[in-house]
Design a protein that fits this description.
The protein is an alpha+beta fold. Helix content is 22%, strand content 28%. The chain has 2 domains: 124 residues, no CATH class; 108 residues, no CATH class.
Length: 243
């Protein structure tokens, strides 16, 4: 979702033996806790570690709220990490329950105002740009609820076999567009993506909607019908890919 409000709350860190207790700043965004300590969160780890252990004050110990925090054009995106993208050691000890549970999209003006209020919050420019694989992961999280039981890229291609209709693209054109997107991701999943965010109210390119088999039939307004490729996020913005 596109974030609207943020609030900070300062507290003393939980006691740890006789060590001096530093201040922690808890960050809540639209009622969702993003981190329990802005200062100690592992913002720039891979993946980002947003929860800090209350026993040792370390984010790597908590292994909770694992997320991708990446630049999306001038915006900032925060969403659950992809389990399959974790290193082998972490895949053995974490599950879906360890992942951050929300998709948050920050306009640059909001993030900068948050940073002005809490200087420990990293600047947008300090985060890496979103990669092709991460962008696909973020986009697939926009699937209708009825289709979310198959959010993997390969499952999306299989799901296209149950496509009933596409508008304005024909069904074959829609399948071809999805295939082209998946090929683009697979050829270089770790490459950063250049692009820009446009709000739907000011977006002039026609958007394509897919209708799938089901009761009722799930519909997904997913991408632009013309070049350049634009992926619909949060039902209200389009990320237009450059190049």
């Amino acid at each position: 979702m596109i974030c609207k409000t943020a609030s900070f709350e300062q507290t003393l860190a939980p006691p740890q033996e006789d060590l001096p207790r530093p201040m922690w700043t808890r960050l809540n965004v639209d009622g969702i806790e993003l981190t329990n300590s802005v200062e100690y969160a592992g913002w720039h780890e891979t993946p980002s570690e947003l929860s800090v252990c209350e026993s040792c004050w370390s984010s790597c110990c908590a292994m909770q709220n694992l997320a991708v925090v990446a630049r999306l054009g001038e915006w900032l995106a925060c969403f659950p990490a992809d389990l399959t993208a974790l290193d082998a050691m972490r895949r053995e000890i974490v599950s879906e329950s360890n992942l951050f549970g929300h998709v948050l999209l920050f306009e640059p003006e909001l993030w900068r105002s948050m940073q002005a209020e809490c200087q420990a919050l990293p600047a947008i420019d300090s985060f890496p740009g979103i990669t092709r694989g991460q962008l696909l992961n973020l986009w697939l999280r926009q699937l209708p609820q009825a289709l979310l039981n198959q959010p993997r890229p390969g499952d999306l291609r299989n799901r296209m076999e149950s496509l009933l209709a596409s508008d304005p693209l024909s069904e074959s054109e829609a399948v071809q567009r999805i295939d082209k997107l998946l090929e683009w991701v697979n050829e270089s999943p770790h490459s950063e993506v250049q692009g820009s965010v446009a709000k739907l109210g000011g977006h002039l390119s026609p958007l394509n909607t897919l209708h799938f088999d089901g009761h009722p039939s799930p519909a997904w307004t997913c991408c632009t019908a013309t070049e350049p490729l634009g992926l619909v996020l949060d039902h209200s913005i389009v990320f237009e890919v450059e190049g």
